[in-house]
Known about the structure:
Elements: H1 2-18, H2 24-27, E1 33-41, E2 47-48, E3 53-56, E4 61-64, E5 70-75, E6 78-85, E7 92-99, E8 104-106, E9 109-111, H3 120-128
Parallel strand pairs: 1-8, 1-9
Antiparallel strand pairs: 1-2, 1-5, 3-4, 3-6, 6-7
Amino acid sequence: MKALITVLxxxxxxxxxxxxxxxxxxxxxxxxxxxxxxxLDKAADNEPLIFATVTVKGLDKQVETGFDGSYSIVLKxxxxxxxxxxIGYSKVIVENVLITSGDKSIYNQTLDVLSLNTTxxxxxxxxxx
Length: 129
């Protein structure tokens, strides 16, 4: 009986030591690259812009920035177009974003508040109607 328990412990010990499981292997996708960065608010002295949207044009892929204004997108190698947007701000489109296998590309972006282009002439036309 003692021999059986010793063999059992030996087998369990060997099998658990022989296997290595890396949690990052579930997240990390070999052959892909990462584009990441921070979206900033130009009107607020370049403070991080929370919940801004970063869209990869031509793909059904978009993310929102976190509380620190950061974003990260895993993409297959290739050339992409990114669109940075937020309600009440001008959209910014960045073309020719090159993603290479195993590399990280950083694209920080600053968004500016939309300006209302009203003139006295436009206001006068609205008043006449």
